[in-house]
Amino acid sequence: MEAMVTKNSSQPDPDFWRGKRVALTGHTGFKGAWMALLLKRLGALVYGYALAPNTQPSLFEVAKVAQEIASHVDDIRDDYSLNRWMTSVQPEVVLHFAAQALVRESYRDPVGTMTSNFVGTLNLLEAIRHQASVKTVVVVTTDKVYRNDESAKSFQEDDHLGGHDPYSASKAACEILVDSYRKCFLSHIGLATARAGNVIGGGDWSKERLIPDAVRAWESGQVLEIRSPAAVRPWQHVLEPLCAYLILAQNMWSDIDLARAYNFGPAVTDAVSVKQVIELAQTAYGKGTVQFGGEQNGLHEAGLLHLNTQLVSEVLGLVPRWNLACAVEKTMAWYRAYGVGEDARSLCLRDIEAYLGA
Ligand SMILES: NC(=O)c1ccc[n+]([C@@H]2O[C@H](COP(=O)([O-])OP(=O)(O)OC[C@H]3O[C@@H](n4cnc5c(N)ncnc54)[C@H](O)[C@@H]3O)[C@@H](O)[C@H]2O)c1
Q1: What are the residues whose beta carbons fall under 8 Å from the beta carbon of 83, sequence distance 6 or more?
Q2: Pair 226, 294: CB distance under 8 Å
Q3: What's the rounded Cα separation, in Å, for the pair 163 and 337?
Q4: Which one of 1.10.760.10, 3.20.14.10, 3.30.360.10, 3.40.50.720 gives the CATH number of domain 14-200+235-266+303-323?
Q5: pLDDT per residue as tens digits for the range 242-300
Q6: What residue owns the CA closest to ligand 1's atom 3?
Q7: Nearest alpha-carbon partner for 287 in 224, 229, 338, 226
Q8: pTM score, two decimals?
Q9: Residue 37 CA, ligand 1 centroid: distance in Å
Q10: Where do the H-state alpha helices sit in the chain?
Q11: Tens digits of residue pLDDT in 291-337
């Protein structure tokens, strides 16, 4: 018998996820590694498809995620491999995280960014089209898909898409692509896009991201230079959007009318400046120095970004659980504990238990 899905339930439902076959792209990345551990905790059967981890260290490796799931290392631009993998996995739920996810890297490698993000998503949708087992799909894009005139407005799902830098443009293009597939080929399944803001949490070692840069600088006794202290972003702990994606997927399973684009983000008061976040992080970490207003290299990045999340709160009953102060505290506690030798997987599982019990 199928598990009952409670509408407006604001936690992922283990009765729903237990035994579900879940295809997760991007499982070797920061959000993907956390998602793999979360899905395993909920009892799902997890199959990952991604490139090898590209940070040193990587959460995928230090949390030994490969021991928990079936991990397949390959390129999403390779449609032949992707199709073979999809056929062998026979997933019921697909969560698409794989992407070149960094704005600054997208200036250095626009072609790699566009092909991984757009062609990769196209290949995935085509593979899904030929896979009868799939019932629910969540494609992760970003809050940067909106045409941003820096007017401090709060973006709603029907606002104009756009994208100044290649990363944002590639993700906005994915939104249009998914919408087309939803209308033309995949109207019989639940296919949604999820636009979330910047996430923080233990175990991110990406380059040119705020908290990883801070931890690297403070651990090596260097001064952290902040290039855009006034930039405002909606910040959340990584478990907030991850649980929200799962709640969306479990609701769409029984109601495909929910298939559309959604914003996911924190309370309005948690869209704050880079300076405020770094000051919270410094206090929580207990050491480190910062210099604000450092190097500017002329690359455009959005200055103001606010998301309107009324739709997910009305339709899915979602309310943020950990506010910004709590998210920063959990994140810095993770790095502090890891720095003195605690086990990465145990630290993630501890945060997952705390979040699910919140
Ligand atoms: N981290 C954030 O703050 C944030 C905010 C909004 C949206 N997102 C989105 O969430 C998703 C995950 O982000 P993340 O922070 O974990 O990024 P990440 O860089 O840590 O991980 C990216 C993952 O995608 C995989 N990947 C990249 N190119 C690939 C390719 N050609 N073929 C196969 N796999 C490929 C990588 O191997 C890795 O597993 C991305 O789609 C990103 O755009 C992230």
Answers
A1: 126, 127, 130
A2: yes
A3: 38
A4: 3.40.50.720
A5: 999 999 999 999 999 999 999 999 888 788 899 999 999 999 999 999 999 854 556 66
A6: 198
A7: 224
A8: 0.95
A9: 16
A10: 14-17, 30-41, 59-62, 79-89, 103-108, 110-114, 120-129, 166-184, 210-219, 239-254, 274-285, 310-315, 324-339, 344-356
A11: 998 545 566 666 667 889 999 999 999 988 999 999 999 999 999 99
C-alpha 348/C-alpha 351 separation (Å) is 5
Write the DSSP assignment of 144-187 as a string of letters: GGB---SS-PEE-TTSPB--SSHHHHHHHHHHHHHHHHHHHT-T
Classify the phi-psi angles of 299: left when phi > 0, otherwise alpha if psi is within -120 to 50, otherwise beta. Answer: beta
**What are the CA-CA distances from residue 351 to residues 61, 197, 198, 240 (Å)?**
18, 20, 18, 11
Q: Residue 95 Cα, ligand 1 centroid: separation in angstroms?
A: 12
What is the maximum span of the chain, computed from C-alpha positions, in angstroms? Answer: 59
Contact (Cβ atoms closer than 8 angstroms) between residue 56 and residue 216: no
In angstroms, what CA-CA distances link 111 with 96, 102, 169, 347? 20, 13, 12, 37
- Residues near ligand 1 (Cβ within 6 A): 26, 28-32, 50-51, 75-77, 97-101, 116, 120, 140, 142, 196, 198-199, 206
Tallying the residues shown for the chain, one arrives at: 358
Provide the pairing of β-strand 271-273 with 289-292.
Answer: unpaired
Tokens 């196209």 label which residue? 122
- The one-letter code for the residue type at 350 is R
Q: Could you count the other beta carbons within 10 Å of the beta carbon of residue 254?
A: 17
